[in-house]
């Protein structure tokens, strides 16, 4: 992991063409599961008093896929029912159509759905894989953590209601917020050193 952070600029330069035909933008990509099962977090209480909160034990869920550009806070999110190669393909195609004017380098983990041989990477997208078992180098993880913190102890009755709540959260995250969550120093230094 340390080596990945240290030579991130070299890894970026290795995947980007020498003379790109459009501006290059680096994105942190990941997905997270959101469901009706209540997200529990610590609460402050008097010493010896157990925290009390409403809790829902239901397992309906969906996945929120997202790409965030750490240098500017631009974000692209898409809710899909599953995490598999087919739905990653749907996200990649929609993302490529939404950002046609840039060459988009997606920093992502080595999940099976991300590395499937059947995956067709759009021509304006480049995949750059992080080391295995190192989610801490992917800035998108902090966005999911912030969203789940915002949802802590909420009980939503339906999946549609939860999806609406997630849409409201995503819309509330402006570029400054997304940038503050994802602008990891190692990544910003690597992007600048690579001249992107």
Short description:
With 196 residues, this protein is of the alpha/beta class. It has helices at residues 2-6, 8-15, 85-98, 140-151, 159-172, 175-182, 185-193, and strands at residues 24-35, 61-68, 75-80, 103-108, 125-129.
Please provide a written account of the structure.
The chain is of the alpha/beta class. The protein has a single domain (2-40, 54-193), classed as Ribonuclease H-like superfamily/Ribonuclease H (Nucleotidyltransferase, domain 5, 2-Layer Sandwich). The chain contains 7 helices and 5 strands. Strands 3-2-1-4-5 form a 5-stranded mixed sheet, with helices on both faces. A hairpin with a 6-residue loop joins β2 and β3. α2 packs across α7 (185-193). It is globular, with a radius of gyration of 18 Å. The mean pLDDT is 87.
Biggest sheet strand line-up: 3-2-1-4-5
CATH T-level fold name: Nucleotidyltransferase, domain 5
What percent of residues adopt helix (DSSP H or I)? 25-40%
Gyration radius over CA: 18 Å
CATH-scheme architecture = 2-Layer Sandwich
Number of domains: 1
Helix and strand arrangement:
Elements: H1 2-6, H2 8-15, E1 24-35, E2 61-68, E3 75-80, H3 85-98, E4 103-108, E5 125-129, H4 140-151, H5 159-172, H6 175-182, H7 185-193
Parallel strand pairs: 1-4, 4-5
Antiparallel strand pairs: 1-2, 2-3
